[in-house]
Amino acid sequence: MQTDNVQPPVTNLPEAGAVSHSTQQDNPARDFARAFFRHRSAVIGSVLVLIFIILAILAPVITPYDYTEPSADALAAPSAEHWFGTDDLGRDIFTRIVYGSRISLWVGFISIAGSIVVGSLLGLLAGYYGKWQDTLISRLFDIMLAFPSILLAIAIVAMLGPGLNNALIAIAIINIPTFGRLMRSRVLSVKVEDFVLAARAIGMKNSRILWHHILPNCWTPIMVQGTLSFATAVIEVAALGFLGLGAQPPDPEWGTMLSDARDYLQLAPWTMVFPGVAIMITVLGFNLLGDGLRDIFDPRMKQ
């Protein structure tokens, strides 16, 4: 008696390599890192920003001199002992620039963080609720944007009094409309999406819709704008310092250093060149980083 050879059914199982490949393709963090390191401007900008962050953190280790005390003759030219020379009081310029990076980065971070929080909250309320809330908040933004930003900052500091903290407050205030209008426009487009309409249909509270559905989908442009506004904040704090409204002596703020050195431009040009270059490189780094992030997060750039 012969029996037929019964073969077990063959099932088409996915290969392990295909599964891992699919997982890698669906990893947002890996996709972002790959796109980031392929973008030359973003990499260069992040390196420049990282250099100044390291300088700010390691300032006491990197610099051998006190930024408030004379360490050589006044207006000494750059040398092996003083890489960037000395100012009119004999203070090492390299030391003051390194410590000045702490002030610029600190003011930029705190002021822009405050602008993002306040501006995003106002834009969120205006864009979602509309009606009189939208009208009131939008007109407030229009009034603030009617003035040149640096002129409005000067007016605010003039009322509050000169000082670094008041300059920080002024920079935070003048940047609120930028983030508020950006958040409002984003909310207007997100609140008509199907997932938001479905959340309303099932009776979800407005507060939950705002914080759990709308706000997470609005952070990308805010983050990009925050990076670009950081560069603007560095320029604004330097401008206020140059006018004598920001950091006060002996704080080594870059704008204040430029103001102190303007009388020695022909006699000792390095006293103005090096602080100016520090401002330029910092602003360039944040601008390149912001442009890179904007290109990475733009869906049209992925085609």
UniProtKB/TrEMBL annotation:
Coiled coil: none annotated. Residues 1-25 are annotated as: Disordered. InterPro entries: BP-dependent_transpt_permease (IPR050366), MetI-like (IPR000515), MetI-like_sf (IPR035906), OppC_N (IPR025966). Its main location: membrane. Residues 101-290 form the ABC transmembrane type-1 domain. The chain crosses the membrane at residues 42-62, 103-128, 140-161, 167-183, 228-247, 267-290. It is a multi-pass membrane protein. Residues 1-10 have a biased composition (Polar residues). It is found in: Cell membrane. Keywords: Cell membrane, Membrane, Transmembrane, Transmembrane helix, Transport. It comes from the Bacteria. Belongs to the binding-protein-dependent transport system permease family. This is Peptide/nickel transport system permease protein.
